[in-house]
């Protein structure tokens, strides 16, 4: 354990290793302009070679609502499966689960919100109804031996309801766990959370769900993602959602943009002596390629700094 | 004091209030394309109205080396002095001090480096020589009742020498204090520092210089500024250098760019319940105005998020 001397000489501890959940190819690209299946496949294959062990590769949702994910079948069929990598798919219902199974997804992910307002706007039902809807999905997935991950959005603030009480986050996280999710990803969907509020939220959630069953999913819309991550790491969180080149955001939350970039997370972990097993340079290269296709710069300061170093050396 | 429950249930404390040192008009603009004196004056006047109490307004350095600061005399003469604000000037030598006095600067700032390599490249002498050169400047300033602030660069890494040993930072910080500086601003000039290394550096420096005599000056080139600031706040640092709209960088350090944005610092402090006395909206407005003049977007996620909220409400 890395030890850090704090102000009063107290010791804060960081985990020796963390797992990164790469969501760029799904949560990222579903909120960008559409790219070809070939581009997605190339991105995922590059990410697979970087040392990442968990890649969300697609979503089996209505192409009417999320046209960017309409080719998830092609993507799952086209990628080269690395034996060290878990390839997961987001599914909204039984139909999506069937498609995920047909594509041999290794795991599935379901989603709800910690706030009623967001749940209503996002999936058109109450939190309770969303949990009921996912019950048969989880149960059938489990019968087939598929592990289920749960996304919980708006764990700090909701664009419709304002601040989300930490106890409410804890209670929905517990419900997802009881439903059968082996891991709950706590999402600061609009990125307004600051470290003290994130700490209080995690403190409340940890009373119901063990830290090892939790992941954090930060958005950098207000620049707080790494400070929030730093706080979370000191509280025993060992799974981090992140998105290569900072791809994506949330289409349903006004003003929301910017999953925290995988490159930035890697640089922070590296600096804290926390093992990730992931090659930063390779992830950065994958990010430059997809950013080039999207016609814009990566939304990652580490990626830009690495690129600038590289081009300076060449000249 | 705000208390934060850490992993092991230990308490980390944050200061109830901090002072922001706004360096955008000097450290920022000296590294941007030149703007008119009128634009600088308007920027400083807007910042003065925001509640900021310390504004670095110019530098009396060679116009051959830093042409962007050649009009510091006009700027000091043109601004409306708010009685609550300290207006300081950077000076490299006795000639600069005379000019600062002629312009009625409230304080002066001098500068050296914690690394020999950077000192040589930046001011063409060793650290020891730089301290000797500044001795008559500090002594004459003190005779006139002018307080002197000291900048110390490369406190984490040096682009020429690599990592800077924390003890070396501590030793030069102590020398600056002994020279007569009432405050030492610790600069992560190339922005490569991560929280654990910043903590170790601060730990070493605090053994020689009291925390209340220290300021932190972070660059966000590698996205670490706010995580580093969060760590520093937990270690008793109460003065923070920052730059409206993230103006500027360092012209002497290859690849270096991006003083941490004042807006981002304010949002973090606000979220931690730390008093700043500064109006975030007014700083953001000042940042939008100068960014418009520079023809680019603010380098501040908080500023961009605020702007996006504002324009969404209007439509």
Automatic annotation (TrEMBL), chains A, B:
InterPro entries: Aldolase_TIM, HMG_CoA_lyase_AS, HMGL, PYR_CT. Residues 18-284 form the Pyruvate carboxyltransferase domain. It is an enzyme of class 4 (lyase). It holds the Pfam family HMGL-like. Pathway: Metabolic intermediate metabolism; (S)-3-hydroxy-3-methylglutaryl-CoA degradation; acetoacetate from (S)-3-hydroxy-3-methylglutaryl-CoA: step 1/1. Keywords: Lyase, Metal-binding. Gene3D superfamilies: Aldolase class I. It catalyses: (3S)-3-hydroxy-3-methylglutaryl-CoA = acetoacetate + acetyl-CoA. Belongs to the HMG-CoA lyase family. This is hydroxymethylglutaryl-CoA lyase. It comes from Vibrio ostreae.
């Amino acid at each position: 354990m890395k030890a850090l001397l704090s102000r009063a000489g107290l010791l804060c501890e960081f985990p020796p290793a963390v797992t990164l959940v790469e969501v760029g190819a799904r949560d990222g690209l579903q909120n960008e302009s559409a790219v070809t299946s070939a581009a997605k496949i190339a991105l995922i294959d590059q990410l697979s070679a970087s040392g990442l062990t968990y890649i969300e590769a697609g979503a089996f949702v209505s192409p009417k609502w999320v046209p960017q994910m309409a080719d998830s079948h092609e993507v799952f069929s086209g990628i080269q499966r690395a034996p060290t990598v878990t390839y997961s798919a987001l599914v909204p219902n039984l139909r999506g689960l069937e498609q995920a199974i047909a594509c041999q997804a290794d795991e599935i992910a379901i989603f709800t919100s910690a706030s009623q307002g967001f749940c209503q706007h996002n999936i058109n039902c109450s939190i309770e109804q969303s949990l009921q809807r996912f019950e048969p999905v989880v149960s059938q997935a489990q019968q087939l031996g598929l592990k289920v991950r749960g996304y919980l959005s708006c764990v700090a603030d909701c664009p419709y309801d304002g601040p989300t009480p930490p106890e409410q986050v804890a209670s929905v996280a517990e419900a997802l766990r009881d439903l059968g999710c082996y891991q709950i990803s706590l999402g600061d969907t609009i990125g307004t959370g600051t470290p003290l509020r994130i700490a209080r939220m995690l403190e409340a959630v940890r009373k119901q769900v063990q830290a090892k069953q939790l992941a954090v999913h930060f958005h950098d819309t207000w620049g707080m993602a790494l400070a929030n991550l730093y706080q979370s790491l000191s509280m025993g969180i060992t799974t981090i959602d992140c998105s290569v080149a900072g791809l994506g955001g949330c289409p349903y939350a006004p003003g929301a943009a910017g999953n925290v970039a995988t490159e930035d997370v890697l640089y922070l972990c590296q600096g804290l002596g926390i093992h990730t097993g992931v090659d930063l340079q390779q992830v950065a290269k994958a990010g430059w390629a997809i950013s080039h296709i999207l016609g814009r710069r990566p939304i990652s300061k580490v990626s830009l700094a690495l690129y600038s170093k590289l081009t300076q050396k060449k000249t």
